[in-house]
UniProtKB/TrEMBL annotation:
One of its GO terms (biological process) is lipid catabolic process. GO terms for molecular function: hydrolase activity. This is GDSL esterase/lipase CPRD49-like. The keyword Lipid metabolism applies. InterPro entries: Iah1-like, SGNH_hydro, SGNH_hydro_sf. It comes from the Eukaryota. The keyword Hydrolase applies.
Amino acid sequence: MVGPGRPLFVLFGSSIVQFSYSNEGWGAILADIYARKADIVLRGYSGWNSRRALKVLHQVFPKDAGAQPSLVIVYFGGNDSMEPHPLGLGPHVPLPEYVENMKKIAMHLKGLSDKTRVMFLSSPPVNEEQIYQTLGVRGRSNEACRIYSEACLTLCKELDVKGVDLWTAIQQRDDWKTACFTDGIHLSSEGSKIVAKEILKALREAKWKPSLYWRSLPTEFEEDSAYDPIGQDGRSTIKISELEFSRSVQWE
């Protein structure tokens, strides 16, 4: 730990999370927006499903940790929704088990502390044709993603967990199939922009106290200083926090 203490946000999920700091990803966008406001920690595991996540949940989020996260953003579902293998191999998890696994994950995270908030990201769509052209594999369908996405969002309502509907949000773009993915599954910079905006919208609309929306959090060491950059008049300084605010305002 380093001080002063800030709110801790944890991103927990499969490759959509693990790769969220690369290719101008949504995790990197959040880290940039929340600079000097919150620490964002990555716990992404490419290829994982909800079954595997559940097995390590207590190791990743121990209940006896000295400090608990203020927010956990969770994404599992895309790998769970893949077609089942005849020998039981691979990441497929039947829908009822997926829902139960996600329920257990949500209940554990909500029990970490009274102020730990939980947000689930639903399965984004996929471009089946691009997957085959790029990776040469089949087994994923956009329809299956829809089914698992809707199940996730229904569970969110039941558990009072904030849910973000990525399956619908990404498909609002007319060119989503060509613009939002690198390989039909993983997000391009354009796809990540949509994810970041939807997360920030959900944080803005949440009725949590205290609010975790970036505008509502204090900026660390934001007091005026003689060491701040000199303004155009040559006699006054410009607060660094004001410059940072103008850079982040695009994500309203």
